[in-house]
Write a structure and sequence with these properties.
Layout (H helix, E strand, L loop, with lengths): L2 H16 L3 H13 L1 H23 L2 H7 L1 H23 L20 H13 L2 H10 L10 H30 L6 H24 L3
Length: 209
């Protein structure tokens, strides 16, 4: 793989990863409501989903999507439906934030497994991420050179940029937590978050790809 090809990949992935999307929005929302530490569990789930898609890409995912277009359509419908569901849940969420430090008694919070699983489902059900892994990533592979090493370089590069973006969104969400302890701002945050999830879901439904 040529250096200029790698740098082009880095720049492209940077803009893809740092732009607001379902994964980043979910990590930020978890950081606001549950704290930075628990947001890392959601981040781990999202990241494992991304790695899974990239691994499938290396195994020939793009060829499967070309041979069976119905598979991508089904994944697209499921992914859009899940984002719409998340939007509804966020819109209807309780406006009283979970304050673990100030709680007088035991506070019911999602289990680590639940946080991880939800993050994974959001990441794996995003058809745009599937399209990236299946159609975009293979374009940076030089067929004249060893493919395994090239895929490894691309996956590691993507992983470093993706994790850095997760951390930035989680820290940003934590910095807003003080403001969102009040009911009014929290209600607006829930509704804006829900509206964005719904917008992503509708965009997926309306896309032709």
């Amino acid at each position: 793989m040529a250096w200029h090809t790698w740098w082009l990949y880095v720049v492209t992935v940077f803009f893809i990863s740092t732009s607001p999307g379902p994964n980043m929005l979910h990590v930020m929302s978890r950081s606001v409501t549950l704290g930075f530490g628990r947001a890392m569990l959601a981040m781990s789930g999202c990241f494992l989903a991304v790695l899974t898609l990239l691994t499938l890409s290396a195994a020939g995912l793009s060829a499967v999507l070309v041979a069976f277009p119905g598979v991508f359509l089904a994944l697209k419908i499921v992914g859009a439906g899940y984002l719409l569901y998340l939007g509804y849940r966020s819109w209807r969420a309780d406006t009283a934030p979970i304050d673990l430090a100030a709680a007088d008694g035991p506070v019911q919070v999602p289990s680590p497994l639940h946080l991880f699983r939800t993050g994974f489902l959001i990441g794996i059900s995003n058809p745009k991420a599937l399209l990236f892994a299946g159609a975009f990533l293979p374009q940076f592979i030089d067929p004249a050179q060893p493919k395994v090493l090239q895929f490894a370089i691309l996956v590691v590069t993507f992983g470093m940029i993706e994790v850095s973006s997760y951390l930035l969104y989680a820290l940003g969400g934590r910095s807003m937590a003080g403001v969102l302890m009040r009911e009014g701002p929290r209600r607006w945050f829930n509704r804006v978050t829900g509206a964005i999830f719904v917008a992503f879901g509708l965009a997926i439904v309306g896309s032709r790809g």
